[in-house]
Amino acid sequence: MAALTWTLLQAVPLVLIGILLLKILSTLKKIHDLKASFKDFPGPTPHWLYGNMQELTGDFKGMLRVADYAVRYHGAFPVWMGPTDAFLMTVHPATVRSVLSGSDPKDEFSYSLMRPWIGDGLLLSSGKKWDRNRRMMTPAFHQGVLRNYVKIFYESGLELLEKWSKGGDEPVETFHHISLLTLDSMMKCLFGYSSQCQTETVRHPYIQGVYDVSEQIVKRITNPLHHFQFIYDMSQNGAEFRKTCDVIHSHSEKIIRDRRQLIASERPGSRPVDFLDILLSGKDSEGNGLMDTEIRDEVDTFMFEGHDSTASAISWCLYNLARHPDHQDRCREEIRQSWGDRQDITWEDLNKIEYTFMCVKESMRLYPPVPNVSRCAENDITLPDGRVIPKGVRMAVSLFALHRNPEVWSEPEEYDPSRFSRDSVTYQSAYMPFSIGPRNCIGQLFAVTQMKVVIPMLIRKFRFTLDPNRPAEPESMLILRSKNGLYLNIHPVK
């Protein structure tokens, strides 16, 4: 017995060495396979440990460097995130069109940090479930539904007008205020719930939760150690994140239960149909509706995708108009002639501000609200130039770099709204602030409608100028933010 025990003890180091060798061989094979996948795609030389992550950061310099590499490496190049992991960055219109034209799922690695909050909604689901839910949700964004939201967007805008009218002479961090505005609008549109989040000093737990969870995810992204789940689970931020998700889910579930009871007791047609009504009543081809957990996931997904991305678009547009007062004045005159001081803004009024929306489009070209999107190739993808992206490769699309491609845009760094005039060329697959293809942003018309209401409201009441002491520093953090805040001087128009 003793001899057997001794033999086993002698074997343990050999077993451990064998396991270690297998792990090393597995890692080497993974590196070899990745390099083979990228054999037709030259790119910047990676550091042996950090890969390309020190030069291709999420700050403004890093994003501009991606735009430079887009030209140097013919529209697609590998980006190494370390010695063993990499993805293919795609930044040329033809390449991007090939990557986004299919229904390939999102890259799970890039979005998995949000799964505990938004679950398996449209953003993260794939295959038959994604296709089924996309079809069922599409009616929620029909023009007939969106028409009802114009008044809601306007009412939320009025609260911000009043708040800014009472402000002093100090510069205002606009992104925070506009994020609350878009969150307030979405609560009204999704749930028929008046949150008062723009004015209340103590917020409703759900509103505070939605606001907090976005910040907690950003904190996790900026801390590389917290990308490891077991480390994050033991951290204070991880504990707060789980608690916040529980609060959000609990309240979402209560709202869904309450709405079911309301629908059962009310007279049909007694109020306008909203997003939640459509989620609750929708049926697939087999007559089955969504389960409550699926409805909760879709609501939480749209809250994430909708409120901060729209706030980014509105904030950066105001920033660009502050940088270019001549365009701002021209917008204000167009709005004055089209709307006057009326407060009964209608759906039809939104198409009367053509030049103003050209300015919005040009702002989203330079500062796309979602600067990067990702996919994972379910099958081999053959590009127009004959190169092949192998099955299983993770792919990213830098919309920021795509929108600044000098092969497409003359003087791409210049803010020139005339690019989007009726007489200008059509920028197919070179301009896509809401992505393209089957997995494009389902709520883009919702977002555009809100921009067309809120931005003119703000411009006709206020003049915006830059704060020279706090210049904006664009940074890619899920959405495009300013690293040091987005401060503007806000003066009432006399």
UniProtKB/TrEMBL annotation:
GO molecular function terms listed in the Swiss-Prot or TrEMBL record: heme binding; iron ion binding; monooxygenase activity; oxidoreductase activity, acting on paired donors, with incorporation or reduction of molecular oxygen
Cofactor(s) listed: heme
Binding annotation for heme: 441
Keyword terms: Heme, Iron, Metal-binding, Monooxygenase, Oxidoreductase
Origin: domain of life: Eukaryota
Keyword DNA-binding: no
PANTHER family with a match to the protein in the record: CYTOCHROME P450 FAMILY 4, CYTOCHROME P450, FAMILY 4, SUBFAMILY B, POLYPEPTIDE 7
Family: Belongs to the cytochrome P450 family.
Name of the molecule in the record: Uncharacterized protein
